[in-house]
Amino acid sequence: MKKQQLGNTDLYIYPIAFGGNVFGWTLDEKKSFEILNGFTEAGFNFIDTADVYSRWAPGNTGGESERIIGKWLKEKKNRHDIVLTTKVGSDMGDGKKGLKKAYILKAIEDSLQRLNTDYLDLYQTHFDDVETPVEETLEAYAQLEKDGKIRWIGTSNMTPERIKASLEASAAKGLPRYQTLQPHYNLYAREKYETNYEALALENNLGVITYFSLESGFLTGKYRTKADLAKSPRGGDMDKYFDERGLKILAALDEVSKHHKATPAAVALAWLLHKPSVTAPIVSATSTSQLESIILAPNLRLDAEAMQLLDDASSW
Q1: Which Pfam families did the record assign (predicted)?
Q2: d(C-alpha 93, C-alpha 263), whole Å
Q3: Whole-prediction pTM
Q4: Alpha-carbon distance 290 to 300, whole Å?
Q5: Which residue in the list 53, 123, 193, 241 is annotated as catalytic?
Q6: What are 184-231's pLDDT values in tens digits?
Q7: Distance from C-alpha of 283 to C-alpha of 210, rounded to nearest angstrom
């Protein structure tokens, strides 16, 4: 397993990122620590979260994931071994959202406090704020870089046009440049990324770190029938996948999995890792068995026949 460079940064990561959206939601603090320990003990070093995680869970207000990660970092004393990223821009309630400079400068202080650190390796725009000029957002990031609070920046959930405008503003005004892109991309959700973002990422050498890499669990093969939907808090929306294309994808995953003696989850992640634009999928796990599937993916070599089978089954 080799480290991969993130865009044009000096950050090198092992090619799976752990997604902290499950912390404080489907995992309590104790179980979160167990999963984080297992992930890092397997050699991985990249942890992704956001200030808004996991505000959607009953009784939560946001920041739960960052607090759990922060406590874990303090306990393990391993901050400098971890490539740590969080995000800004989501709706935190009480009018706290957006990408205006003043808001970003306040939001990062809250994130740093929760994470028990004085700097972030990567700070990402989570959701765009079209009412704020891209230059103002980048100026906020420039201030944070100057103050030593962030090292690099990335983006997620922006239109290609706004990403291009941001890259142009960075070049013209000497402002920090987005180095990473976090898109929704996987074996099932292909069209939007491949049509609108893939060429942009390759042309600008953006490190692509995909979210929903297993389509909320569908690509693990855990959900086979509508009766399986009660297996997880994420199961409620799964019935939309039980169409002809979704079933073809599961069948292809099963065939490749059997041939390679691997799980469908590992195959789905390996498919992403074989795509030239992808640096690292972001994946969550809520059990050690799920984690084992995840950590095997970077060493799974899919041949051309397997890739073609998966491409054909998931074509759009």
Answers
A1: Aldo_ket_red
A2: 39
A3: 0.95
A4: 16
A5: 53
A6: 999 999 999 999 999 999 999 999 999 999 999 999 998 877 676 666
A7: 9
